[in-house]
Amino acid sequence: MRPRLSPYRRYELRKGLQEAAKARGEPMTKEDADYCIDKALANGVLDSAGDLNFVARGNREEIIAEILQKVPRGRG
Known about the structure:
With 76 residues, the protein is mainly α. The chain has one domain (7-70). It is 55% helix and 0% strand. The protein has helices at residues 7-23, 30-43, 60-70. The longest helix has 17 residues, at 7-23.
């Protein structure tokens, strides 16, 4: 049984995964994408709304510095 996720949000996530795989030159079927989504839901990486969850460790300044290092330049 799949964790609860709205059909539209699952569709959005699936299409995003498939497009990312296509950009890398790798095929991804609907079943492969659904497996990745289900795994992320089961592991707590995604919540039931399809939003990303992550754990940050350190003090506020360390967390902000780490986020800023990982943000692609030229956006925003």
